[in-house]
Design brief:
This protein is of the alpha/beta class.
Length: 161
């Protein structure tokens, strides 16, 4: 009888762990408010009229975002709202103006800067990798990918309605 109880407990534990591993990140925010590298405040609120393609990357993951963006722009065109967030939590306060000026020089389009890490936390982005999230009109995650671009990963993104 004790062996059966142990086996049952282990089975339940495995089911619980596998459910936790497969679970999507926590609730996504209903509103994102951050400043870009030019100092402009942006507010992305849900629900929206279009789906949102959200990219999150730290300095190591940012280099791998360009191929993703090129492929996703071919796939979605203007049918989604594109939002890029730089995960810059690790930047010490005295270096923030330097990092901001580098963003200004490198990118002509707005990149939202998350200095606290609080905005990106619910998405559970991977470090040193590009993180791409397709959000529904209500802001929930429809699909996500992490890491370098592959044709299979790109084609796994659904076509928005």
């Amino acid at each position: 009888m004790p062996k059966l109880a142990i086996l049952l407990a282990l089975t339940l534990a495995l089911i619980l762990v596998s459910a936790l591993i497969a679970a999507p990140p926590g609730d996504t925010p209903k509103s994102i408010q951050l400043k870009d590298q030019f100092g402009k405040q942006h507010q992305i609120s849900f629900p929206r009229q279009t789906m949102t393609l959200l990219t999150i990357a730290d300095d190591k993951g940012a280099a791998a975002l360009e191929p993703w963006l090129a492929g996703l722009k071919k796939r979605y065109g203007t049918n989604v709202h594109y939002v890029g967030i730089a995960q810059v939590r690790s930047v010490p306060s005295p270096l923030r103006s330097f990092v901001t000026s580098r963003f200004k020089k490198k990118y002509s389009y707005p990149i939202l800067l998350d200095w606290s890490g609080d905005v990106v936390k619910p998405f559970a982005p991977q470090a040193a990798a590009p993180n791409i999230y397709l959000l529904s009109k209500t802001g929930s995650i429809v699909h996500q990918a992490h890491g370098p671009l592959s044709e299979r990963a790109l084609n796994s993104f659904p076509i928005p309605d």
